[in-house]
Amino acid sequence: MPPTDSPAPSIAWLLYALLTVVCWGIYGILLHTGQTEMADKVNGRYMAFLYVGIAYVLVAVIAPMVVLKVNGGRLDFWNYPSNGLWWSLVAGTAGAIGAFGVLLAFGAAPNPKTAYIPVVMSIIFAGAPIVNALVSMVKHPPEGGMAAVKWPFWLGIALAAVGGALVTKFKPDAAPAVKKSAHATPPAPGHSR
């Protein structure tokens, strides 16, 4: 076999995509846990969202600035090209509104609320790829137009919608809350409370 100058195709893109799958896959349960652990039924979701924002500052502001500095990139972000700046700002705003929507959906879900974590996240993760695919095709039309889109693509869109609907309709019921015993365990001999 003759030598080739082109490097082997990298699967880094797939690994990063799978990292995102894992992170976003646990996002809902982590967010709900943070909300409930705030111990404030009225404002817990807003308190949790505040910390989501703090995490965004750490991960999406400070980390990219460090990476830009290490790679010799520009840190004068106020002078970035205006189209890129504004579209990126719109994207970040859409992401933040979406994260807030997750918390609002958790708060508005009927009781028991924990049973709705997979429902809310399944609706989001089934619906978002559909929206992404359709908006992407409008913004970047496929070669040959819509008629050139093969039927398996449309089947995938339908299956995503059906999957989200099935998870929503047949969600497992949450286990009943464990009631704390009215009888407190007495302290061990020699220990005082």
Which terms would index this structure?
193 residues; mainly alpha; 2 domains
Helix content: 55-70%
Query: In whole angstroms, how far apart are the ends?
Result: 79 Å
Q: How many β strands by DSSP?
A: 0
* Alpha-carbon Rg, integer: 23 Å
Mean pLDDT: 84
Structural domains: how many: 2
Please, how many helices? 5
> Unreliable stretches, pLDDT < 50, 5 or more residues?
none
Let me know the largest β-sheet. none
Structural class of the helices, strands and pairings?
A: mainly alpha
Helix-strand string: HHHHH
Instruction: Tell me what portion of residues adopts beta-strand conformation.
Output: under 5%
Cα shape:
globular
Write structural notes for this entry.
The chain folds into two domains: 14-108, no CATH class; 112-173. The protein is 63% helix and 0% strand. The protein has five helices and no strands. The protein has helices at 12-37, 44-70, 82-108, 117-139, 151-169. Helix 4 (117-139) runs antiparallel to helix 5. The chain is globular.
Brief description of this entry?
The protein is 63% helix and 0% strand. It has 193 residues and is mainly alpha-helical.
